[in-house]
């Protein structure tokens, strides 16, 4: 395998036998992963040539962007759980356990920006008036 193909293989791992449901779709899923790897390798090669850089660097940039997007979605869901959910917000301990934060970190994980995003996405205002947080109007 060439380095770009190795990076593509790391970015698109093959499923392990027994992890695809229904099991008779395993070969199809493997074919799809192979196709994703080929397309990704072409994209990495093009990006590395265009920007005259090692293909690892755009691959890492892509993973960093995915991580930041996931973090943003977590903050939005925490805002929803604390500010928009039912008559009582989810508890800090439970959210912390599932989101990978400390209970005090849940309080400061989101701010007014995330609350506005959630309100826009779900089409309604929060259930309670907002208390000040360390993140403020992020």
CA distance, first residue to last residue: 45 Å
How many extended strands? 0
Stretches where pLDDT falls below 50 for ≥5 residues? none
Supply the helix-strand structural class.
Answer: mainly alpha
**What multimeric state do the chains show?**
single chain
Q: What composes the largest sheet? A: none
Describe the global form.
Answer: elongated
- Using the CA coordinates, give the radius of gyration: 21 Å
Binned strand content: under 5%
The sequence of SSEs as H and E is HHHHHH
What count of helical segments does DSSP give? 6
What's the SSE blueprint?
Elements: H1 3-11, H2 26-50, H3 56-84, H4 92-99, H5 103-109, H6 112-122
Helix pairs in contact: 1-2, 3-6, 4-5
Q: Which properties best describe this structure?
A:
single chain, 138 residues, mainly alpha, elongated
Q: What does this protein look like?
A:
- The protein is an all-alpha fold.
- The protein has 6 helices and no strands.
- It has helices at 3-11, 26-50, 56-84, 92-99, 103-109, 112-122.
- Helix 1 (3-11) crosses helix 2 (26-50).
- The longest helix has 29 residues, at 56-84.
- It is elongated.
- The termini are far apart.
- 16% of the residues are buried.
- The model has no long low-confidence stretch (mean pLDDT 91).
Précis, in short:
The chain has about 140 residues and is mainly α. The chain is built from six helices and no strands. The protein has helices at about 5-10, 25-50, 55-85, 90-100, 105-110, 110-120.
């Amino acid at each position: 395998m060439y380095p770009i193909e190795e990076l593509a293989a790391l970015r698109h791992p093959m499923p392990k036998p027994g992890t695809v449901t229904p099991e008779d779709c395993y070969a199809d899923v493997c074919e799809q992963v192979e196709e994703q790897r080929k397309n990704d390798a072409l994209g990495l090669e093009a990006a590395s040539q265009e920007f005259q850089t090692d293909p690892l660097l755009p691959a890492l940039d892509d993973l960093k962007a995915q991580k930041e997007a996931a973090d943003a979605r977590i903050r939005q869901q925490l805002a929803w759980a604390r500010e928009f959910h039912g008559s009582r917000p989810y508890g800090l301990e439970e959210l912390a356990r599932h989101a990978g934060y400390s209970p005090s970190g849940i309080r400061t994980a989101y701010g007014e920006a995330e609350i506005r995003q959630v309100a826009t996405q779900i089409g309604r205002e929060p259930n309670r008036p907002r208390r000040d947080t360390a993140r403020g109007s992020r």
